[in-house]
Amino acid sequence: MTRTDARLPAEWEPQSAVLVAWPHSETDWADRLAEVETTYVALVGAIVRFERAIVCVADHALEAHARAALQAAGVDMDRVRFVRAEYDDTWLRDSGPITLRTAGGFRLLDFRFTGWGGKFEASRDDALVETLERGGLFERAERASIAFALEGGAIDTDGDGTLLTTWQCLNQRHPDASREELSAKLADWLAQDRVLWLDHGYLEGDDTDAHVDTLARFASPDSIVFQGCDDPNDSHYPHLRAMADELAALRTKDGQPYRLFELPWAQPILDEGRRLAASYANFLIVNGAVLAPSYGEEADARAQAVLREAFPAHEIVMVPCRPLIWQNGSLHCITMQLPEGVV
């Protein structure tokens, strides 16, 4: 595969819709289902202000339940489409399609999803892209099944041939592969010119092995937004400062340093003594807006201000995501954008 016959769009490029899966009692959300549904209602309501939302539901009863919850909140249902699919859980960033534009339409990259290296059962999630394709969701798209474990949250692209990822995650999934081998495979499958690796950065409570979408994200081909930590007494401080130094040393394709935007650090959020991974880098870019996680913390407003500076042409909409981090993810993790024209 070469850059001439395919391209991986940046997240800020025009989108058809955002894909989500509604939580239900057979997912890991069962113990706090009502609580997490408040986030899904707020999220879908925010998405449809700017584009369509495609909501996966397990069966007719769940569709009726989700529809009623969204209608009760005044969500524009003309922009909501329900699709039936079985799924183990709702982290569609990692089980959904990674979509390339091609000369004739789109290529849906269907990588193996292994439950983050075998941590959880994931057979239905691994089959999700094929299920949605067979259901007729996509237009002018061919599915390419790739026998290689890769999650969408593990990569970020600038839309111009540069990929950003973390060594910790890819090395955990593929311990026998060298960095050079992994770079070549990713560049080939994802139609990239180069792969930038981060060796530092992690969040307590994160079971993805340091997905880049919790740490650092492109805001444009020459700028990166990243999760900072300004508390020297926090266990994250040395790791995130080392990551900040790595980012400062990276160069654009033109040999220039990236413009860097450091997101604030939320005070520790605990659940029965367990530290939760509250990252502001886990935002979602939609048509004309950035949907950003809020955690009910003082740092929420400062995160919004940083994102407003990094995305001056976008509206910054804060979505309450504190219930999500109970299951170790946030807003970007439960969504997958679909490029304009694919649905």
From TrEMBL:
Family annotation (Pfam families): PAD_porph (PF04371)
UniProt keyword annotations, A-Z: Hydrolase
Gene3D superfamilies: L-arginine/glycine Amidinotransferase, Chain A
Designated name of the protein: Agmatine/peptidylarginine deiminase
